[in-house]
Design brief:
Arylsulfatase, C-terminal domain; four-stranded antiparallel sheet; about 110 residues; globular; alpha+beta; two-stranded antiparallel sheet; single chain; 1 helix
């Protein structure tokens, strides 16, 4: 996972299946309802982006949860800079901060 901040994108990552296939070009995006995974896409001749990988809702939700969990673990695993006394601020207690609220097609107002 390549973390950073590119507008609303928080990370880029690839997935490898149990069968050895590698799917490249996933994005972890910060939306109005929290983090979600953007599937790989390419710009078509109509200047619109079209998905190049399709999955059903269950698979999409599994990918979302895995990516958010991995992103959260990597963010928390980053050690503070001890030379500058740069310690991370205390985090509020939450039941499970690494799990985002599921987002569905019904949440889109159009």
């Amino acid at each position: 996972m390549n973390k950073g901040s590119w507008g609303k994108i928080r990370a880029f990552f690839d997935l490898q299946t149990e069968d050895g296939f590698t799917l490249k070009g996933f994005k972890l995006v910060e939306g109005i309802n929290g983090l979600f995974v953007g599937f790989p896409s390419q710009k078509g001749s109509d200047e619109e982006y079209h998905d190049t990988v399709w999955a059903d809702r269950d698979i999409k939700e599994q990918v979302n949860q895995l990516a958010i969990k991995t992103y959260g673990q990597e963010v928390m695993a980053t050690p503070p800079d001890m030379d500058n006394n740069d310690f991370p601020p205390p985090q509020p207690e939450m039941a499970d901060a690494s799990v985002a609220t599921p987002f569905s097609d019904e949440d889109v107002p159009f």
